[in-house]
Design a protein that fits this description.
8 helices, mainly alpha, 2 strands
Length: 233
């Protein structure tokens, strides 16, 4: 349970409703390209800007944290960027007029075959940890890789799928990666996968309560508004 909210779970719908309050930048005709760039940038910052953040997401068996001088400090440094990635995911849903909670639930249905109610961030954190072995993507060996076994690979694939769906016209200029070889997937599908994967990485890899990440990000952006700084996460 969140240390900030105490015993009151933070509903995903309430967080999405707060997007309009924490965003100063008005939508522009090319906002999809702009937000795709923000999301890629936040991912790169989380994985590499503060040092070997990517080691926190290494596959099971590699124990990447043994290679990190101070894992606790590194986790605290990457948390803000991961929180920004969470905010941008909800902002994309809001811009498209889609409900982020529904997309998270549909993602669970596709990967687990079960209808799971994701009303709050507490639910998201609980169930994505429980079913992380079901969230998977095809790999170059003709099998699948799941979020539980290789968070780095599945997380980055889900991020790339999302940004590709937001700007499919740019696909021709990109390197022929595993994601680029796929068809461009519908945005509600890839955004639900993205949000669930971000929630897993925040909690399982960065050691932060997903609810606290959402609350911290909202508070940060509200404070920026008082300083007169654009709230773009």
């Amino acid at each position: 349970m969140s240390e900030i909210l105490g015993e009151i779970p933070y509903p995903l719908d309430d967080f999405q409703a707060s997007i309009a309050l924490t965003r100063n930048d008005p939508p522009t005709p090319d906002w999809q390209r702009t937000y795709a760039g923000y999301i890629r940038g936040e991912m790169l910052e989380a994985l590499y800007q503060h040092g070997p953040g990517s080691l926190l997401l290494l596959p099971q068996g590699f124990n990447g944290q043994q290679l990190i001088e101070n894992p606790t400090e590194l986790k605290s440094e990457v948390q803000e960027e991961l929180g920004d990635m969470l905010w941008f995911g909800f902002a994309v849903a809001d811009q498209y007029g889609e409900n982020a909670r529904n997309m998270c639930e549909q993602s669970f249905m596709r990967h687990t075959g079960e209808h799971i109610s994701i009303m709050s961030f507490t639910d998201l954190q609980k169930y994505v940890a429980q079913y992380a072995g079901k969230f998977s993507v095809p790999n170059k060996f003709g099998t699948v890789t799941c979020l539980q076994d290789n968070p780095y690979y599945v997380f980055t694939r889900f991020v790339n799928r999302l940004t590709r769906s937001m700007e499919p016209q740019a696909a021709a200029s990109r390197l022929p990666t595993a994601t680029e070889s796929e068809a461009v997937l519908p945005l509600p599908q890839v955004l639900g996968d993205y949000l669930n994967a971000v929630g897993f990485v925040i909690s399982a890899c960065a050691g932060w309560d997903v609810e606290d990440a959402a609350v911290f990000n909202t508070q940060k952006l509200m404070e920026r508004q008082t300083w007169g700084k654009n709230a773009g996460a």
